[in-house]
Every structure is written in structure tokens, then in C-alpha cells.
Amino acid sequence: MRALLALTPAAALAALAGCVTPPAEPAGRALFDDYCAACHGPGARGDGPAAADLDVPPPDLTRIAARNGGVFPRAQVMSTIDGYTRTDQHGGSMPEFGALLEGPMIRYDSGDGRLTPTPRPLADLAAYLESIQQ
Hints:
By secondary structure, this protein is mainly alpha-helical. The protein has a single domain, classed as Cytochrome Bc1 Complex, Chain D, domain 2. It contains six helices and two strands, in the order αααααββα. It has helices at about 1-20, 25-35, 35-40, 65, 75-80, 120-130; strands spanning about 105-110, 115-120. The protein has a two-stranded antiparallel ribbon. The protein is globular, with a radius of gyration of 18 Å. About 20% of the residues are buried.
């Protein structure tokens, strides 16, 4: 019985490690290129080819943390991307990408210390945006 109890924490830790795999920046970059660059530009500065046709200019995504006191607001960014809490931000021109970013779930800490089931593509995109902050 003791041998079984000794293995239980190790097995639980191994299973948990598989659930909290950090997001991958290259995957996030590819998602950005596919879904965001047309408006936000390849450098994420709000100067994409579609930006001129929008009523409200897209923001510079490299300055999200700077606009928030030096802190990258992961949960807020992910909610804006997927459209979960958005009402009519950006003049209604920002599409909701939640359905496009569905995928395998990972347990992700968006900054509140809780591991929340999150679609991996959404976490990957948020991780990429966090990685380009200036």
C-alpha cells in the first residue's frame, strides 16, 4: 500500500505537468498572421492593409502592457480576442475570434493564479502578443 501511495503524488504531478504546457510562440505568431495582421499589421502596430478602411484605427498591440502600467493583462486580452466580454469595442469593427480559436484545451494561468481550461490557440495567440510588448 505504501508503494502505491508513494507513486500517487508523482503520477499526479506528471499528469498535471501535461495539462499546463506553456503556449508556443511560433503557433501564436502564425495565428496572428492569419487573423490579426490584416488590421494590426505584420508588426502589430495598427498599420495593416485593412486599417485604412476601419472607422476606428486598430491599436498598437506592442504597447498593451505600456497602456496598462507595465502589466500585460492576459485575461483581458484573451477576452477581447475571443469576444467573450466585448460589447462594442473598437467601434464594432473587431471581429469575434472565439469560434475560430477553438481547439484542444490546456490549463492556463491568465494572471490570476488559477489554472483555467483554455483553448490552446487562444493561449498561444495571447502568449505571442505578450512576447512582443515594448
